Structure formats: structure tokens, C-alpha cells
Amino acid sequence: MLLRLAYLAVTNAFAALWLLPVSDRDKDVEILALRHQITVLERQLGADTRVRFAPEDRAFLAALLTSLPREVLRRLRLLIRPDTVLRWHRDLMRRRHARTCRPKRLGRPPTVRSIRALILRLVRENPGWAYRRVHGELATLGIKVAPSTVWEILKQAGVDPAPERASTT
Length: 169
Fold this sequence. Notes:
By secondary structure, this protein is mainly α. The chain has helices spanning 2-19, 24-43, 55-65, 70-75, 82-101, 113-125, 131-140, 147-156, 165-168. The protein is rod-shaped and about 105 Å long.
């Protein structure tokens, strides 16, 4: 037992010497990372032998440890490899970028009210025109609207988009 005590004293003295050139910030980050790993391990007591990190644990460790230089990361006593921490950080940034670049509204933007009114006016004034002819006239005027959009506008207004409309009105 005395020999073991001497061994621990010498190894801890060398560990203390090893920490002298490390900055206080790096030491604080290391302490936080080690404490978080202990929390994860305590949460999984009695589980299988492999440690499983939840997504929030991965995000916390990735955000915490990526500020450290790689050589400091390799020196830390982590349950995971430094490359894994960097991969977690890359995934975190990729998801964040994908979330911020996602369009706010999905689908086709609504048609402008004035274009809707123009379509309905053209159909009212020209009862023999089908939706394709209305689309062609709009294209001639320089208004870009899909034929299916003209069809939908006429259907929503209760107007038959087909040419048979002239015989029924």
C-alpha cells in the first residue's frame, strides 16, 4: 500500500507539472467537459457498457470543446475521440445552417390580387376563351402565370375554365 501511495504521489506531481503551461480557460473547459461526462455516466448507471450521448449532450460537448486546440483536445481524458467531437460540431453547424436557410413559407407564393382580377375580367369580357387562351393573352402582356394557376383561379371563382362556358352563359 505504501508503494501504491508513492506511485500516486509521483504521477500526480507530473500531472501538475503538465498543467502549468495550460491556460486557465482551457482548464475550465476541461473541468466542464469532465463534469458533463460524469453526469452522462451517472445517468446511464446499470445500462450496457457502451456510453450513449443524447443529442443535447453532443451539442453541449461539441460547443464546449471545439474552442480548444487539437493538441489540447487529444490530451484530455474524454470518453470519445477528438475527431468525434469535431464531427459532432460539423453536424451541429450543418443542421443550424439548414434550419436558417429553409424557406419561411412552403409552396408556391400566392398570385397577386390584381392578376386574379385581370384573369376574371378577361374571362368575363371574352366568354369563349378557355384558360389556355387567357394564359396566352397574359403571356402576350408580359405577365408570367402558369396555365394551371389560371385554371385554379377560374375554378375558385366558380367559372368553368373550359370553352363550353360560352354556350351556357
